[in-house]
Specification:
This protein is α/β, with parallel strands linked by helices. It folds into two domains: 127 residues, Sandwich (Immunoglobulin-like), CATH 2.60.40; 224 residues, Zn-dependent exopeptidases (Aminopeptidase, 3-Layer(aba) Sandwich), CATH 3.40.630.40. Helix 3 crosses helix 9, helix 7 packs across helix 9 and helix 9 packs across helix 10. The chain is elongated and about 80 Å long. It starts with 7 loop residues before the first helix and ends with a helix. Bound molecules: zinc ion. Zinc ion binds next to loops.
């Protein structure tokens, strides 16, 4: 009951709410209002009727007459008044179900008063149901990713165009099998309705490594997966390996792999050596550290999920300095699906059945990475 010991002096001082505004941009409708002192609050979205309730402690509304008729975006009208037990409540009526993308009390700063900021995103009834659990708006900081927005997965099928990548004795080309797998993975991910999938290439096209990274960043990808296959002199070696980015290769195999995969840009005359150095200097920061540890977390989940459907190499998680994994703010992994120099792996890479099993396992890994509880519920 410690919470009951509120400081009476502060509680007695009337908090004032004024300057309410509603703005709409990029699919987000934002309700904001100044408050004369920081307050705790809670926000709930309802589907029937479609509305958002903001519960506040007792305060004084200092709003012009007709304030509730000033609307924009998904808010069709709003009202305010006394709520339960002398508390205050603002109700935002919305045209369709919405979810709360962010609800924050921005502290006073630079002479500006504290203000309440509620960011709403239109959703479907199904989307509403799926995100309901997330709608416990409180005085938590704004989430960097709107809860309503689908997670963005960037798939990067390696090579393409003038760069065929690795080839088997019989002429199976890496650029073709990795694109086929990326297509299968895209289908599996989209079937869940949980993800927006973007692909760095959809046809047989050459794309520079830096452009692949930039593409993922431009699309604000939540996860970047580069897809490759390899060849080795040792025809008996087979299996899948996941790579994460590191300035220091985990071993000689990983180092050699990174050098091979990074070579793509030399085909178009790019001075990769210089570029990597510049990129490396800029990118050594906290964001990258975080992205790397997230990538490692995903790699571990992925290995667990794919183990039943594919062979794994003796060391299925390795790290090295891959150019395509350099995005500082996007957790990135590179999957070497298998070896075209191995007959069994080649057959596997050419098999639509294997592709769909592998795509399902990767999807489970992605579900598990983003929402451990979700993947448990789906099992
Ligand atoms: Zn490759």
């Amino acid at each position: 009951m410690l919470a009951m010991l509120a400081l009476p002096a502060i509680a007695a001082r009337a908090v004032e709410l004024k300057n309410a505004t509603i703005t709409e941009a990029g699919g987000h409708t934002v309700f904001e209002a100044d408050v004369s002192a920081p307050v705790s609050f809670s926000v709930t979205a309802q589907e029937k009727p479609s509305q958002v309730e903001i519960d506040l402690p007792r305060l004084t509304f200092n709003l012009p007459r007709g304030a509730g008729r000033e609307v924009a975006g998904s808010i069709s009208s709003w009202r305010y008044g006394a709520g339960d037990k002398g508390k205050a409540r603002i109700v935002l009526s919305t045209k369709t179900p919405v979810v709360i993308s962010a609800s924050t009390l921005v502290p006073p700063a630079n002479g500006k008063p504290a203000h309440l900021k509620i960011d709403l995103v239109v959703t479907t009834r199904q989307g509403f149901a799926e995100t309901k659990a997330l709608e416990t708006g409180s005085i938590t900081p704004a989430s960097p990713k709107p809860a309503a927005a689908k997670l963005v997965i960037a798939l990067d099928p390696g090579h393409g165009g003038v760069d065929p990548g690795a080839s088997s004795n019989t002429g199976t080309r890496e650029k073709d099998v990795v694109l086929a797998f990326a297509d299968a993975l895209r289908t599996a991910l989209e079937a869940t309705s949980r993800y927006t999938v973007v692909m760095t290439r959809q046809g047989d096209k050459f794309i520079k490594l830096e452009d692949r990274v930039q593409y993922a960043r431009d699309h604000k990808a939540d996860l970047f997966i580069a897809i490759h296959a390899d060849t080795l002199d040792e025809a008996e070696v087979r299996g899948t390996t996941l790579y994460t980015e590191s300035d220091k290769a985990s071993d000689a195999v990983a180092e050699a792999m990174a050098q091979k995969e990074n070579r793509a840009d030399i085909l178009t005359g790019m001075d990769l050596g210089k570029q990597s150095e510049d990129v490396a200097n800029v990118l050594i920061n906290l964001a990258q550290k975080e992205s790397r540890s997230q990538a490692m977390l995903f790699a571990k989940k992925a290995v667990n999920e794919i183990r039943p459907v594919t062979e794994l190499t003796s060391k299925p998680i390795r790290s090295a300095a891959f150019v395509v994994l350099k995005a500082p703010d996007v957790p990135s992994v590179l999957v070497e699906l298998g070896y075209l120099s191995n007959k069994a792996d080649e057959a596997m890479l050419l098999s639509p059945q294997w592709r769909s099993k592998m795509a399902a396992a990767m999807t489970a890994a992605i579900d598990g990475y983003f929402s451990p509880s979700l993947s448990a519920a789906l099992k």
